[in-house]
Amino acid sequence: MKIALVAPEGRMGRAITAAAAEDNGIAIVEDGAAVLIDFSAPGAVRDSIDRAISGQMALLIGTTGLEDGHHDLLRSAAEEIPVLVAPNTSLGVALLSDLVERAAAVLGRDEWDIEIVEAHHRHKVDAPSGTALHLGLAAERGRNEDAKDEMGRCGSDEKRETGAIGYSAVRGGTVAGDHDVMFLGPDERLILSHRAESRAIFARGALTAARFLSQQSPGYYTMKDVIGEA
After folding, report:
1. Which of 60, 67, 222, 229 falls 20 to 30 Å from 210 in CA-CA distance?
2. Spatial separation of the C-alpha atoms in residues 30 and 53, rounded to whole Å
């Protein structure tokens, strides 16, 4: 399978190139690819869509910090090409998201509070992380409701709102990515966690997602679709 990269010299571009070098079934090319992978920046989304459509390539977007307008563009593009949007391409995180949704469906909102804590390296700009927000959306799907987001509580004298989902972000060092989803109930806690030890896991997951995407018809896909095929 041939894949093309947006920003191949970026951190994720280099990680994907290294992962592809260990896989005899994948080649990195500039043109004529089956899948275009973009982990660059939100501002590049429109150009990546145009490039993918003009080259009739599937498009995998791993960029975080996307806004509603970006998602609208990607859903429109999905009418012409296969599009997969993943704020985190780790297969472990995809499974974690599924587990969070199931737990939220079982544990009642009135007695169980949800707090999401994430840690990343000192250079990460967006906070909370796209993955943390993605996990929060999984919890909302499980509860079948939109929840109020509570972004940290330093300096706040307001008590926690029932049904809200709290987010806390930690930045420092070289942390590749830690995420804890805490379900805090009466006299017990359930904590679902994922630890990323290097960007290699995101690169390997991106290649797995690219293989999946190369076999799909036009449409809008997520990592849940990828692990559903596993």
Report:
1. 67
2. 15
Helix axes 200-214, 91-106, angle to 10 degrees: 80
CATH number of 2-85+199-228: 3.40.50.720
Domain limits of the chain?
2-85+199-228, 91-196
The reported pLDDT for the residue numbered 229 is: 64
CATH topology of domain 91-196: Dihydrodipicolinate Reductase; domain 2 (3.30.360)
Residue-wise pLDDT tens digits, 119-146:
999 999 889 998 999 999 999 999 999 9
What are the residues facing 90 on neighbouring strands? none
C-alpha gyration radius of the chain = 18
The secondary structure element, H or E, covering residue 71 is helix 68-77
